[in-house]
Amino acid sequence: MSGEPREMTITVDGAPVRVREGATLLEALRAHGVDTPTLCFLENLTPVNACRVCVVELQGARTLVPSCSRKAEEGMVVSTDSERVRHARKLVFELLGSSVDLSNAGPEVARWSARYGADPARFGAPAPAASEGSRDHRHAGHHAAPDPAVAQTVAQPVKVDNDLFVRDYSRCILCYKCVEACGEDAQNTFAITVAGRGFDARISTEFAAPLTDSACVFCGNCIGVCPTGALVFKSEFDLREAGNWREQDQTVTRTVCTYCGVGCNLELHVQDNTIVKVTSPLDHDVTSGHLCIKGRFGFEFVQVRERE
């Protein structure tokens, strides 16, 4: 029938797979039931090929290709679990695990690391954490000689400069998701970007200014896409610090934002009869997972039980 997307056939791990024209290899793999690790990919953002954990081996290609952005082509022969693929993924998880705190990255990351036998400890004990603000002002091209006895890390104090969300860049893997959400893919504010080079690369505002002095409009879309807990609600951060963040006990209720007539869907995460954070479903055709400051953070009035 005219108007329907054409299909093509590719081979995945020896099996023929039918895939629609224009689909990425990752879409084809997921449709085929292949569990493919991803960190920098999200359905509502443009792929940036940053994390490289989704790479697959493509027959005839010189290098491994990122499945999140490579389009499927008729006759492609793809290997998702070859020795070359497993080695590449293992090394990525080892390098990340040795330099970044992945403890809040979710169970999938731990499962993938275990699957590929990643051993971050082989790089040595972690280096001491950087002092407050020192990583923010490093200059590209000016690198101190690393200590070979320890593993370099991005450990640093948490940035708490507002009442809405917290930045813990010791958990940042530079996946670029927050930059994309702040930029052309959602908010078009461009308040943050990647500054520096090499191991000194970091997410930064203009001139490393506090968020309150930057172009940030506090929509929180960066929080909604962060995969490792580097960006979290202040309410979540406080509960975690107090040892009282119990995600398994939380309920999630889907509702409609009442602030305007756009119709954005909200997901209210409730613990102990209190809203602790607000998200938006990726599959909602109005928001695609993104919200404004009112929708994401304007829930405190709900908690007020009595008028003063």
How are the elements arranged and paired?
Layout: E1 7-12, E2 15-20, H1 25-31, E3 55-58, E4 65-66, E5 77-79, H2 83-99, H3 107-115, E6 125-126, E7 150-151, E8 165-167, H4 177-182, E9 192-195, E10 202-205, H5 221-225, E11 231-233, H6 234-241, E12 251-256, E13 265-271, E14 274-279, H7 293-297, H8 300-303
Parallel strand pairs: 1-5, 6-7
Antiparallel strand pairs: 1-2, 3-4, 3-5, 8-11, 9-10, 12-13, 13-14
Quick structural gist:
The protein is α+β, with helices and mostly antiparallel strands and 308 residues long. The chain has two domains: 1-126, Ubiquitin-like (UB roll), CATH 3.10.20.740; 154-303, 2-Layer Sandwich (Alpha-Beta Plaits), CATH 3.30.70.20. It contains eight helices and 14 strands.
